[in-house]
Design a protein that fits this description.
The complex is a heterodimer. Chain A is an alpha+beta fold. Helix content of chain A is 38%, strand content 20%. Chain B contains 8 helices and 11 strands. The chains are: A alpha+beta, B alpha/beta.
Chain lengths: 407, 215
């Protein structure tokens, strides 16, 4: 019998872990510097919880049944869990709340895909209780800071506004609205041109499909549309956000190159304001992270429907890992031990363990490993140490006398 | 710099010709002696990959090519995450249901429930019969689908029909058309959004060339 991992599963060996932790620690330090606190939620959620926001399809969730027959799922993302958890402590907590997470998520691979990954790692933040432009800017600047800490200054940021786009879509007759939205979300111009629309509406749909580019150009093009007061207010907010980011970048806060793209929407989602994706600049561009504003989501989890605004983003650690591998910044080996302690006789172990402990107890981290008698001769011990890149050997006798040797 | 994925086979000549009209020369692919899979345009501003029809959307979906030309039939079958930008008008054919001319069936609904249907387009066939609410067993094949009914393995086939000559020569008749297919211009979504390598300019030029050809 050969035991194999489930299809699409992966084991992380020490070097993989060292590299993954390098990424996570850099990002976490940035989260801490911005005053965010870690939250850990349950890996398992009730399926209802995961799907309440309307952005998760049940067939993409790896599902389980509990003893009572309740349908559970392994979380495909963290925002739903954090929203569920946050509303239980909504009263009496000072806002805004700044939360971050670093967790594994699961997504069922499509049947047509072969051996595709099902477990992923994500690190992200949620800023709860603040609805203004400043909160949006904080999230985007925090994201920029994270990318900078990883040495990824060359990324692109695609930014849209789900609320504005949804509102602009409401001009379409309800019979075709879903199709228009689907075609725009999937950049399907051919489908859009084939829909039964009046010339005016078709023009509007095609305009929405390609409403992207330099932020100032795009804002100008949107402003030329016939907007209602609410839409105009949203456009002004976007403009304020762009100005704030521009001003921050003038003050040496790095901001990635930004494309304003009002066709950046999903077919189903819970976003109500800005939405964004960070894309790597190298060939085979990939989405490294994404996020947005969700001002109604918390209300779905609150028993009385009370809500708080929220905005956040998530970084896809696996994609970052792959991208950074070629950069040479990740550790290329696990750290070697500083010391190898060798008992000179079989009876010297007690003394050797005691000696090793005195070195371990020093203020800085010192990695000390014990020789377990696998090597027959002193020369074999030295060979082993060289192979493992251990610089120092201490030979310890039964009486506790230690002779150091530097290789 | 942009990369375009081009399909081997029937769509290649028209694709190369279309790209020539916007100043990209990949005509080396059309020479019978050509064995290269990757060609640079003479201006070195674009590169083309020569791949199987089915693989065009794969290279585009993964972003190794920013643009691609592929039949709608493949897009419908594989549903890749790519931007569908332009109907290029050439490579016109139809996805059809065909049976042996000697069989009694003259429409899909007359096919007996749980009969076998052979096809290279498993998803298209499955979806079509599901919509008809007719339970059939789809038999996946990789080529010469016409042999399905001829050998008696299947009652019908779902396949692309261009002129209908192959069907006729094999004593098959077309009984339903499922959809019409033409060549399409597709793009990698992120490259499209970010205008990587000036891809928007190329798309606009292609749109102009196709519109000019139609009018």
């Amino acid at each position: 019998m050969v035991y194999q991992p489930p299809v699409g599963a992966r084991d992380l060996f020490p070097l993989d872990v060292a590299q993954k932790r390098w990424i996570e620690e850099h990002v976490q330090q940035v989260f801490h510097r911005w005053g965010y606190h870690r939250i850990i939620t349950s890996t398992l959620e009730r399926l209802d919880t995961l799907m309440a926001g309307g952005a998760v399809e049940p067939e993409t969730v790896i599902q389980l049944l509990d003893l009572e027959g309740e349908r559970l799922g392994l979380r495909p993302e963290l925002t739903a869990s954090i929203a569920r958890a946050a509303v239980t402590r909504m009263a009496g907590v000072p806002y805004p709340q700044r939360l971050y997470y670093n967790a594994n998520v699961f997504r069922r691979a499509e049947r047509t895909s072969h051996n595709r990954q099902q477990e992923f790692y994500q690190a992200g933040v949620e800023l709860l209780g603040s609805g203004g432009v400043a909160a949006d800017a904080e999230i985007l600047l925090l994201l920029t800071d994270c990318l900078h800490s990883l040495g990824l200054d060359q990324c692109h940021l695609i930014l849209g506004d789900a609320g504005l786009t949804r509102s602009l879509l409401s001009a379409f007759p309800s019979s075709v609205q879903a199709q228009v939205r689907h075609a725009i979300a999937h950049l399907d111009r051919i489908a859009l041109e084939a829909l039964p629309l009046t010339d005016d509406l078709r023009e509007r749909a095609l305009l929405l499909l390609d409403l992207r580019g330099q932020p100032s150009d795009v804002l100008q093009r949107v402003s030329s549309l016939d907007l209602d007061p609410q839409q105009r207010a949203t456009v002004n907010n976007l403009k304020a956000l762009m100005d704030l980011l521009q001003e921050s970048s003038d003050r040496e806060q790095r901001v990635p190159s930004l494309v304003l793209d009002l066709s950046l929407i999903q077919t189903f989602d819970y976003y109500t304001g800005i939405v964004f994706e960070v894309v790597s600049s190298s060939a085979g561009q990939r989405v490294l992270g994404q996020g947005g504003r969700y001002d109604q989501l918390l209300g779905l989890y609150h028993p009385k429907g009370e809500t708080k605004p929220g905005v956040g983003f998530v970084l896809n650690i696996d994609h970052l890992h792959q991208l950074l591998l070629s950069s040479g910044r990740l550790p290329s080996r696990t750290p070697p031990s500083d010391w190898l302690i060798v008992p000179t006789t079989p009876k010297a172990y007690a003394a050797a363990f005691a000696y090793a402990q005195t070195i371990r107890d020093s203020a800085q981290l010192v990695r000390v490993e014990m020789n377990l008698g696998e090597q027959a001769s002193p020369e074999a011990v030295r060979d082993y140490a060289r192979q493992r890149q251990i610089k120092q050997i201490a030979w310890v006798s039964e009486t506790g006398e230690a002779t150091s040797e530097t290789l | 710099m942009i990369t375009v994925a081009l399909p081997k086979g029937g769509l290649l000549a028209d694709s190369v010709r279309l790209l020539q009209t916007i100043g990209l020369d990949f005509s080396a692919f059309l020479e019978s002696s050509n064995r290269q899979l990757e060609i640079w345009d003479t201006t070195h501003s674009a590169k083309a990959l020569l791949v199987r029809n089915n693989d065009v959307p794969v290279y585009v979906e993964y972003g190794q090519a920013q643009l691609g030309i592929v039949g709608y039939d493949i897009l419908r079958e594989k549903r890749p995450q790519v931007a569908h930008l332009l109907d290029l008008g050439f490579g016109r054919c139809r996805m059809s249901v065909a049976v042996k001319a000697s069989s009694p069936y003259r429409s899909s609904l007359e096919l007996p429930p749980h009969c076998r249907v052979a096809s290279k387009f498993v998803n298209c066939a499955t979806e079509y019969f599901k919509e008809l609410d007719l339970p059939v067993e789809i038999v996946p094949l990789y080529g010469s689908v016409e042999l399905g009914p001829i050998t008696g393995m299947s009652e019908a086939i779902v396949d692309l029909v261009a002129t209908g000559r192959t069907l006729k020569e094999n004593n098959l008749i077309e009984i339903e058309q499922i959809f019409e297919s033409t060549a399409r211009l597709i793009a990698h979504p992120l490259s499209y959004r970010l205008n990587t390598g000036g891809v928007q300019e190329r798309i606009a030029a292609l749109r102009g060339a196709v519109t000019a050809a139609v009018s």
